[in-house]
Amino acid sequence: MISGTAKLLLFFLVLDIAYCNRPPRFLIDGQTEIVLRLKEGDETPVGTLIYKLRGIDPDGDKLEFGVRKQSGSNVIRVETVSAAEANVYLAQPLDRETRDEYALVLTLTDGRLGHGNYVTQSLLLLVEDVNDNTPVFKPYQPTISIKEDAETGVIATLEATDADEGAYGQVVYHLQESESESKFSISTLSGKGVIRLIGNLDYETQTLHQLKVLAVDRAKQGRVNTGTAALLVKVEDVEDQPPEFVKVQPVARVAEDAPVGTPVLQVTAVDGDRGVNNPIAYSLSSNGIGEEIDLFRIERQTGNVITTKLLDRESTISGAYILQITATEIGSKIRPVPSATTEVTIMITDVNDETPTFKSTSYQCEVPENAPTNTPLTFSANSIAEVYDLDQGNNGTFQLLLKQHGEIFEVTPSKAINEATFLIRVKNSSALDYEVVKRFNLSLVARETVKYSAKSSEVSVIVDVLDRNDNYPEFTKSIYDVWVPENCPVGTTVAWVQALDDDSGAFGTKGVRYTNLAGSLADLLDLDASTGVITVKSSGGANWDREVISRHYLTVEARDDLGNGNRNTVQLVINLEDVNDNAPVFSQSKYEARLMENEANFEVPLKLDARDGDLNGTKNSEIEYSLHGIAAGNFTIEPNTGVIRPKAPLDFESFEGPSTDSTRIVHLTARASDWGDPVLYTEVPIVIYVLDANDHAPVFEELMYNKSIPENIPSGTSIFQVKAYDLDGSSPNNRLVYRIQSGASDKFTIGAETGIISIARGASLDPDLTQPTTILYSLNVIALDGATGENQKKANVTVKINILDVNNKSPVFVNPGMVSITENTPVGTEVTRVRAKDLDATANLRYKLDPTSCRAQNERGIVLTAPEFDCASLFYLEEVNGVLTVAKTIDREVVEIINLGLIVEDNASETGPQIDTAELEIRIEDVNDNNPKFRQPFYKFSVAENSKNGVIIGGVIADDADKNKSVTYTLEGRDDLVKLLYLNKNSGDLVVANRIDHEVYEWLNLTIKATDADDPPRSTRVELFVQILDENDNSPVFLPEPRMLKVPEDTAVGQKIAIVEAKDQDSGEFSKITYLLDRISSQGKFSLEPETGILRVAEELDRETKHSYLLVVEAWDNYQYGYNNGESRNAFKHINVSILDVNDNKPQLDLPKACVTITEFHDPDIIVGKFKASDADDPETPNAQIVSNFIAGNDFDLFYLRQNDSGWLEVGINRPLKGRHGNYTLTIRAQDMGTPSHSTQGDLNICVTDLNDHAPMFLRPPHNSTLKIPENATIGSALVQVIARDEDVGPNGAVRYRLKPDSAEHYKTFYLSPVSGILELHLPLNRSKQKIYDIRIEAYDLGVPSLSSEVDLTVYVSSINDYQPQFLIDEFIANFTENSLPGHEILRLPDTVDRDFYEYEGPVQICFFIVGGNENGLFRLNSETHELSVSAPLDREEQDTHLLLIKATEDCTRAPNNQSFFDSSDDSLLKVIVKVTDINDNPPKFTHRVFTGGVSTATSFGTKFMHVKAIDPDHGPNSEITYHLIGKVKMTLTEGLENLQRAPFIVEKETGSIQLNFDPQQGMKGYFDFMVMANDTGGLQDVARVFIYLLREDQRVRFILRQQPVELRTNIEKFREMLGNVTGAIVNVDEFKVHANHDGTVDKTRTDLYLHLVNRRDNSILEVAEVLKLVDQNTEKLDNVFKEFNVLDTQPGGVTALSSIQKAGTTFWLTASSLFLLLLLLLCLALCINQRHTYQRKLKAATTTAYGGLESDIDGRGLSGLSGRVPNTNKHSMEGSNPMWLKAYENEWYKNTDELSQGSDRDSLDENVLSSADDGNCPIESNRIQNVYQTLPPILPPRKMETTEL
């Protein structure tokens, strides 16, 4: 035991420790100073997290981080993010040029160090340079003026500076790419940009050059900055250019009758040198002919050209003159004087001096009678229908007109220019009748259109009229409509048609022949060609079947001239009359119905349906029904409607059959007969299924059962058996199952099949463990038969079970908890006392330690195990009283936590050992008894000289084995050495405190002391050695040479050209030099060896590309190891390399690729063109000097070649080119003067063009030819090709074609290709509107001026068939079998009829095309035979119906366009509906691979609680599915089902319903697993797996939804899936119910959905609490699901189970309560009747004098006469005085008198109201409301009152 004084000292010690605050410290990984390197500017944006601070506080206090206020401290921001961490953010942008480092102090406090006291930590922030400054140019002169002939050389020098350091601050100069790049260059010399002129300037080409100079820093990676400067170079002009024409009119016109001196045109030229601008003189020269010099002259100063003689256009060949005008400079210093030449064309305009002239003196024409309008007249062969006028424009324009018979004929064109081919056409066709006029005499006039002095000419025209046959046969009827019986025999006369013709002879009626019969029946009929009688040629077939086609359309053709003349057609319609040839057909091949015994009708009404294909509305299609068969007497059928009903309810037991089958089958035969002659009928079988009804209840063998059992009887033990029997004869009505309805309390189960009652699995009958204590169980056992729903019957029996008690309780420890003791506690000290409890009264408890369960661990959590450490031996436990004491001394540094195992045992147990175990946790508290200990015997570090303050050198760590680990460090040694270093006393980090020089101190030797924080403190020392390292602090220095190099451009690659050398005073790697060459300055042409400094040529040099290089060479020390980390130093050197020229470039000829075009009239000595010859070599050397000459192509010496000093080549003409038009190729050679010499050659193409002097001439078609085309010609069809030739060449001989517009606009109907001359149809033709088109075609050349000629063409439109073939029906149904191969099934489509009437050429081929619905190419149609087949197998499940659009056409050459819809008005379209006949090619497929469901222990036997469903895509019988349970039903984790003998479930064959086949009992558990199979009629099948879970009623969850059950059932699978995805469980639906409110009312707008969830891992059913927890945890995920399904609430669903268990007790108490309330109600009624009778008597006395005579005036109302007769009664007649009156008023008894009188009797309180029944003479007003508290008038007549004494 611890004494009181020791406890008090311990208390104060703990109190002192609790209030002793220990300072926090920074955790910076063993470094004394935090050093951060950050890049300036955007590389490190404001807000960047630059460091994470961590700290530690031994007391566990919350830490606060900060930064000490000083210069630059606002550059960072410190934010505390947790109790021991903080983030350091950049608060201001960094700029190295402003400040390159920040020495900051971070602060740390736990809030208890006192105000202003902090733990500090140095932070050094180094700002690294980035390339963020742009080079800036120094002031310079922005404008420079240079003469255009200035020599190359330096013209300006610019300089720019960059504020960055190193390569970022070094500047290189470039010129931005521009057009002036070839004339100027820039180089970098000594940091300046030197601009040079390197090319020739030309003032005339460009007067200003704007140079953009770029100053670029030398950044090798990342961002490169560029500064810009603009320099404007002005070019001053010198005299070096010939004159230039600025105003030239290339073409001018002058009238041929213009007087002498008429101005024609003016030209203007200026000096080519704009800066000199000499005056210009003009002169005129000819083009070689010489005539122009005599006709025109030019004024020398003004450039005006005027006439010198009278002009005549007809005397010229082309009506034009070409003049050459020369402009010469005046006062030029250049010899020869500069001049320029240009050409102008002068056109001579015409005057009217010619007369229109016809090419024939007279014309002979002919035209047939009745020729349609616009028919051209045919000219005789010797007539030329042309007229011409040689004048031009309006002078050559003339009109054509007829003097006589202008109303009958017209001439076209009515107006023409120069020359025209004319036609005479019919204007009025009705006037052309051969029988009236045979010849017309006309006069044709051509007259000019000018207003004054118009000239004209006239010729005669004779027109002969030709006779024609112009009448057509006409039928006597417009349409023939006849009727013929269907299936009529051969030879039957169908119709007689007749046609008449007004012509005579063979052209008239006598010559009419019936030549053709066309239509759907044409091949089955015979047409007499002479009489027109039509008879049947072939009978039978679908065409003569009215049920297939009821009407046929045909066309009959008649022609005159014995069948060879004009034709006409008429339509023949043949109607087929109906005969009785179709028997009735039932809609089904078999009828089935279900009839429950004792029911008056079928479950579904049975009605037969038959159809007759004969004509509706006749006896042939009228149907009557009848029944036949042995059992037909039990049923009746309505003969007209086919409805079948049983005569009386049937008895199931009256039909024979097996007792296991609940169905009896009755067979009948039904007949459907028509009323036709003869009578036809069809029979069909009928199958009726009679179903059994459950009409017998089960009966138990005994009335009651009793049994006694001990409380410790094992679970699952069978106790005894109950038995019952059922008198029903068929299953499942006679199959019984047993269940415990109530009283089992989950303790007992019953075998559903056997009736054996057993102890439930896991159940305990111990009365002491039940609440309340139960020793008697009264079970209510029922027996159920197999009927379902309300038809199920049952029997009850009571079973009583007594429980016998047994002693079997074990002791239990009271929680030992946890205790604490200090280390080194004396042996024998009491630690704690342990206790245990035992429910048995005779318990005898003994305690002991359990050495096997003792566990111990040290302060680091390491478990200490035996035999190294025996924790049980440290303590002793008293056996009887449980006192635990210390047995050995305990050291906390060895063990800190001990878990001691305890055992208690009841020695008085009667059922074997009764033991309980527990664990006691003992914590050992610390005492300071250990010195700190360094982790190393000594410490050795190194640091570079000149290191900045705060650079981390290293760190030391000392450990303390005691609980308090805090250690502080101090540095000991000489003062001059100690001040160089700083040791963090908390972390042990060693950093540089002052600058250290390697030359002064190579080593620092010191001592470090570590002291703990306990009282008294303990300490330890260790030796420290620091080595000072040397660093690189000298830069390389270049030797002065080489500075300039000259290298020939043909120097070989790799050749050495110089050696670069530099020196460094450092030693070792710091003195090793590495040489680098700037690639931008060398442009890859040179290379520098990094080790030796040898400069070599790296690529081929080309002086012409670049003639000099300014190389930038760098020297770096320590490059290999220090360059990447910035520890190298460097120097720069510039070397100017000039490239010497060699003759390595051939001369270049700049000759045009295209032909240089000149006319054949080009004058000699006139320059044809100037061309450039150049050489890229150095122009200062012979390498670039060129000589040129012709080497080929100038055989006739037509051309000369001249070369000037500037390198331009001039090609001119030596002699005239007249008649020498064509193409000339001159080969020119250019050769330089270098050594060796180079030459090149090129071809100059000169095209001498022809003068246009020939008009095109037509080769075909001939003039006035006629072209015949069919009326159905399609747009774009080529009709004819027009060909014309022109004798000229080039553009003058290129011929183009065009249509000439005409007044009738015939030309718009056609299109003429301008190049090929192909005439195409542009608009559709219609012969009924226009038969003849007259068009004129013009051929013209491309010369200037253009020449042309014309030809006339007549287009005649020939007749075609105008009517399209027609289908007689709109729809046609075709059937194809599914998956049938192409070609196996072929179907012929119905024929068409043709309704053409005119110009019919005889029978034509009708072609059918698919124009819609066959986008997938599934069908193939033979266009000629009209046979439809499939091109690929059809799949009915993919598409069961296809719609095709068939187009009939006579154009078999090309398919019609596709159509997207059926136009019923288009009879040439047929809609074909293709129906795909199904075959059994698809197996059934279950909707789920796995079906899950649940059944509760309260579910009744025989209940159908779930369905399995499969779908078969096939149709009809092929899709009928049956379901079967296959294999064995597996039962997993089941309890209480051991005695189940039968299959627990039955799968209904037709519907897939799963029916419960046993009676589940409370206490049963587990789940079932079995396979189901779905079969179709073809044997195809599918299988699925079924899981059914057996659950308690309280394992269901109820979801309340605002949806009706029908609506919810359609979407229940979606709800299950979504809920399952969120919860991760299998969701099974148990039941739907309409929602019932708490008050018992039903809310039909809501549904109660009962579910249970199954764990997917172990198939266990989740308890309700787990499900609700899952729902709560996934509220957000389920939000959309609950909103979509309107989920209102989620509740446990076990209420149903409780209500079923308590149903019997509730029924008893409800019955008793009802009887009690009924007795109470009768008693109340009796009291009410007695009270009512008493009040009735009193009220009569009180109201006797309520109303008196008129003389009474009591209270002013005339009642005083009664007061004396009835004493003391009048005071109760006042308003408000009698409570009964008030009550009567409130209940509204006093209404109108009719209502009161009708309801009154002697005992009614309504006798208080005066009724008219008391006195027949009392005039009471009807329907008047009486109120005794209102005023009483009118006063009723006096009546006799009686008074009853009370």
Automatic annotation (TrEMBL):
CDD domains in the record: Cadherin_repeat
Keywords: Calcium, Membrane, Repeat, Signal, Transmembrane, Transmembrane helix
Annotated localization: Membrane
Pfam families attached to this UniProt entry: Cadherin
Signal peptide, first to last residue: 1-20
InterPro entries with a match to the protein in the record: Cadherin, Cadherin-like_dom, Cadherin-like_sf, Cadherin_CS
Transmembrane portions of the chain: 1708-1729
Record-annotated Cadherin domain positions: 42-137, 138-245, 246-358, 359-475, 476-586, 587-700, 701-813, 813-934, 935-1038, 1039-1149, 1156-1258, 1261-1367, 1368-1486, 1487-1607
SMART domains, A to Z: CA (SM00112)
Membrane topology category: Single-pass membrane protein
Name by which UniProt lists this protein: Cadherin-23
Source organism of the structure: Nicrophorus vespilloides (Boreal carrion beetle)
